[in-house]
Amino acid sequence: MTEVREQAERLYRKVNTFVLTCVGEDGYPLTKAVVPGKHRESLSELYFCTNTSSKFAAAITMNPKASVYFYSRGIKWQGCFLKGDMEIVTDLGVKEKYWQDRFKGAYPEQSFTDPDFCVLRFTPVSGRYYSNYHPVDFAV
To answer: What are the tens digits of pLDDT across the range 25-49?
Structure first.
């Protein structure tokens, strides 16, 4: 299992396509593509940036159950599905850590202190890694 987790970690660090899903207010899945956090330490805790005013952020405050999917479509298709809980981070130190200058145009205050700048912390409980036509479940 450790080898599968290590492969998923490597994939996590190299890809830039992340899709998040949560339970919408109507009980149906709500899915969106997001910008990954600029720091990617491990699969134990993943960070993403979005808007506080988004439907996704509102849904997370009502139900933290969520999933993350990321993948690479090269010669070899690889993907990883993670299931866990998501929360909105209010700690300004964490928000500053994940702020990127390229976000300035999207926020009136042009800073991590803008009330609409939202950092999401995802804590997975399990995963499924897919490579070479073979899926493998693993614990996180």
So the answer is: 999 999 999 877 788 888 999 999 9
